[in-house]
Amino acid sequence: MKLLDADELVARVFAKTGLKIDADDPAIHDMLIQQAVMAAVLENFQQQQAEQNRQTTENFQVAFAETAAPVIAATEQLERQKKYLLAEIMQANAADLNQIENKLLGIVGHNMQKKVGQEQQAFLDSLKMLLLKAAVAWLIVWVLVQIALVWWFGH
Prior knowledge:
Keywords: Membrane, Transmembrane, Transmembrane helix. This protein has two helices and no strands. With 155 residues, the protein is mostly helical. The chain has one domain. The longest helix has 129 residues.
């Protein structure tokens, strides 16, 4: 708060009330004293307010820290549990994937063995048929050669 000197007070009194008074008037001296007292009271009040605000803030921070500590601990515990559960889920998923993979490999292996067996059987059947045809053809050729020999030497 800016303190006014006597001349400034005289000018303000005249501006507000229209009364003209002198700077050495006892009312001006009283106003100067009241102004100084008011400034001191205001300064004291501001200091008390600042101290009260500081104390209130400090008390709030202490109370907040006491209240927040369990919440922070619970949050940290939840985070640890979340990580643990995620690890368990990942492990279970990995085990499930391994189990499914093993089943698929078993099914594919079984199907391949079955298909290879079928293809081998088809090949053997085809080979038997070819050998049978070759034997029949050989027999026919042998019979024809025998007939030709008999006819050739028989005539």
